[in-house]
Amino acid sequence: MPKLGMEPIRRAALVKATIDEIGASGTLDITVSKIAKRAGMSSALAHHYFGGKDQIFLAAMRHTLTVYGAEVRGALIMADNPESRLEAIIRAGFTTSNFRREIVAAWLNFYVLAQSSPQARRLLTVYQSRLRSNLIYNLRPLIADRAAGAAERIAGLIDGLYLRRGLDQSDDAGRDATKHVLALLRAELRGQS
Amino acid sequence: MPKLGMEPIRRAALVKATIDEIGASGTLDITVSKIAKRAGMSSALAHHYFGGKDQIFLAAMRHTLTVYGAEVRGALIMADNPESRLEAIIRAGFTTSNFRREIVAAWLNFYVLAQSSPQARRLLTVYQSRLRSNLIYNLRPLIADRAAGAAERIAGLIDGLYLRRGLDQSDDAGRDATKHVLALLRAELRGQS
DNA sequence: TTCTTTATTGACTCGTCAATCAAGAAAAAC
DNA sequence: GTTTTTCTTGATTGACGAGTCAATAAAGAA
């Protein structure tokens, strides 16, 4: 029963299934068949739409980064001054949805993949640059010349706490991490580090 | 020509070869044969001494953490007051040897492995706990009740900057990261975050 | 010397998996 | 109503890899 216009539907299903499968196994060492089965189709169809395993992974990575980016942008429109924008950026990284097992697993594996896949590396670099420039842009009106260094530290603490807390799936891990990064933000805004 | 007492030699060679192979591929998706070849023996021998791939990985992880722990301890004996001990702990994480491709690759992959292997998780937890308690122990005489929070942030920033800088193999990444964590340390010692 | 322990490997088994392909089936175009 | 395009899969191929095993060889023990 081939309906037309299946391509975007199939692709989306495969991307979601890929992330779920990564979450279930913790690894990128998963098979196309498993992904396809989870998405309700044959492995041949997955190859048909994506061409190969690598492309599927990259699409999953792109999707994860896109969702994250959208979340940040969504949080930003609610804020109307630099300080609350900074707070929004920080909070966006630690929402419960970002702490779901599959999402944590995806991020960790993307870091691993970035070591060997130039395309994955590029995507990760885009994420890191965007986070840094977002921070700097909103820090500059508040602390001018110290903005760059502060942004580096805040970005580093976001990634680091995500890494440390992502593994232990406790439900207040996000709240706790947010608290610490906000504490750093206040210190940066106050002090002369 | 079987000399006796080969076991420790073979095991050490396999552990080193494993880390190098992880560094060369960026993944844990490497074969026992490749590891064994790199270590100058047959894959059967690797199985003989380690029993299986998982055990080899765990041994490599244990070794990496042991070396790191020794580095920290070595740096600590040179320091005779809490503040310089804190500085030593921070510096130890960002030595050039810790920024070698293989070591970064190993750490990233251990984080991934920790999601699915309870034993790997346990090892990583040991590392994280030791770092935190080291920090708290030396922060307490300086800032007493704020020690715990500060330790969490410093540990997070160490891991986060390692993650962010580990990928771009520039040679002053370590110096730069150290600078930022030390800046945070000074802010924590001064301020009331 | 004979026996046992340690070291070592090549060959093999059994399984898995990415990728391909030919073929079928339904919609749309003509 | 025939042809073309889109969608779909089962079956197959070709490769690779973890783990086992029987066999060899040297060193030490008896």
What does this structure look like?
Two copies of one chain form a homodimer. Chain A has 193 residues and is mainly α. In chain A, helix 1 crosses helix 2 and helix 6 (101-114) packs across helix 7 (118-143). Chain A is built from nine helices and no strands. The first copy, chain A, has helices at residues 7-25, 32-38, 43-50, 53-77, 82-93, 101-114, 118-143, 147-167, 173-190. The radius of gyration of chain A is 19 Å and the shape is elongated. The mean pLDDT of chain A is 95. At the A-B interface, helix 6, helix 7, helix 8 and helix 9 of A face helix 6, helix 7, helix 8 and helix 9 of B. Chain B binds a DNA duplex (30 and 30 nucleotides) through helix 3.
Q: Secondary structure elements and their pairing?
A:
The structure is a homodimer of 193-residue chains.
Chain A lengths: L6 H19 L6 H7 L4 H8 L2 H25 L4 H12 L7 H14 L3 H26 L3 H21 L5 H18 L3
Helix pairs in contact in A: 1-2, 1-4, 1-6, 2-3, 4-5, 4-7, 5-7, 5-9, 6-7, 6-8, 7-8, 8-9
Chain B binds a DNA duplex (30 and 30 nucleotides) through helix 3.
